[in-house]
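2024-03-11 09:14:02 INFO worker-7 job=invfold-0412 stage=load source=structure_tokens
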């Protein structure tokens, strides 16, 4: 009898993408989502040092989308989340032109695994340098 993992209609054996989102990411996202914390309303996460699988926080702060867009990395793919002035939450994935091709591909493959850690967001936005809340 076929099972969920062996039945060809289920896509076969499910495998992890291999990404390791460090606990600091979820902890920082909880601070962004905390209504009583006015000191932090965005975060940016990216690869931890030379690691190809570990994702950690590289920047966080206040100032909304404008401040977050100004802090985007210029040479590495990154993920993030922002609290909007309406109180809603959005997430993003950004891979700049200066990002190495292999890292861009790996980061794209890891996107869902990382953004799933940023629970409670309303949608994913197209973040880029110069973004403002009006432009999304």
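2024-03-11 09:14:09 INFO worker-7 stage=emit residues=136
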């Amino acid at each position: 009898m076929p099972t969920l993992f062996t039945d060809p209609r289920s896509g076969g054996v499910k495998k992890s993408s291999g990404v390791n989102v460090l606990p600091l990411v979820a902890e920082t996202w909880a601070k962004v989502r905390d209504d009583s914390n006015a000191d932090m309303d965005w975060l940016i996460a990216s690869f931890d040092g030379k690691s190809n699988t570990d994702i950690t926080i590289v920047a966080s702060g206040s100032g909304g989308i404008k401040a977050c867009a100004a802090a985007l990395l210029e040479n590495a793919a990154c993920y993030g989340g922002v609290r909007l002035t309406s109180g809603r939450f959005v997430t993003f994935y950004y891979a700049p032109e200066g990002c190495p091709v292999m890292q861009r591909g790996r980061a794209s493959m890891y996107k869902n695994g990382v953004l799933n850690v940023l629970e409670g967001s309303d949608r994913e936005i197209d973040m880029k340098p110069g973004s403002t809340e009006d432009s999304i």
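2024-03-11 09:14:09 INFO worker-7 stage=report msg="The radius of gyration is 16 Å."
2024-03-11 09:14:10 INFO worker-7 job finished
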